[in-house]
Structure formats: C-alpha cells, structure tokens
Amino acid sequence: MPSNEPPYDPYIPSGGNAAGSSNGQNNGQINALKGQIDDTLAEMRKNVDRLQEREENINSLGVKSENLAASAQGFRRGANRVRKQMWWKDMKMRICIIVGIIILLLVIIVPIVVKTR
C-alpha cells in the first residue's frame, strides 16, 4: 500500500506543528538552510579550483627544478673542463718558465766553466 507521503528525512521538519510555528517559518528556515548549503558548495568549488591550480603550479615547479638540475650538471661538467684546461695552461707556462731559467743558467754557467778550464 503505497502512500503519497515523501520518504522520511530527519533534517526536514515534518508536517506536525509541535512548537506552534507556521509553514511560512518552516519554509524560511528551509530556504535559509538551502542558502547556507549553496554557499558552502560554492566555497568548496572554489577550494577544489584552488587545489587544481596549486597542483599545476607544483607540477610546473617540478619540471623547472628538473631542468635546473640538468643545467646545473651541465654547468658543473663545463666548469671542470675549463678548470682542467686552465690547469694545463698554467703547467705549460710554469714548464716554459723553468726551461727558460735553465737555459739562461746554462748560457751563463757554461761559458764561465769553459773559461776556467
């Protein structure tokens, strides 16, 4: 035996009027609750949108940090290569100076030794 009554919902006041309030007040309360629910839903939608934007920003930062790490590794390799090149250049210069000093000493010492013999 089906009835025409809507299913029971504890959050919607029943047709009984125990407190002496009218249907107009009940409808006003229902409308106020619906308004609060709509406000809450709107705020939740904003929060979800902000979370999605935040996730996009985090993903973007992740990609940027990976690119930065790769470029830092390339810079480190380049810096090591330049450091080694400069070390060899410095060593070549030192060797040239030492050889020049040795040749200069030989030019000075050999004639002195030859004259003294």
Automatic annotation (TrEMBL):
GO biological process: vesicle-mediated transport
Region described as Disordered: spans on this chain: 1-31
Coiled coil ranges: 34-61
PROSITE patterns: V_SNARE
Superkingdom of the organism of origin: Eukaryota
Stretches assigned to the V-SNARE coiled-coil homology domain: 29-89
GO annotation, cellular component aspect: membrane
Transmembrane segments: 93-114
Protein known as: V-SNARE coiled-coil homology domain-containing protein
Organism taxonomic ancestry: Eukaryota, Fungi, Dikarya, Ascomycota, Pezizomycotina
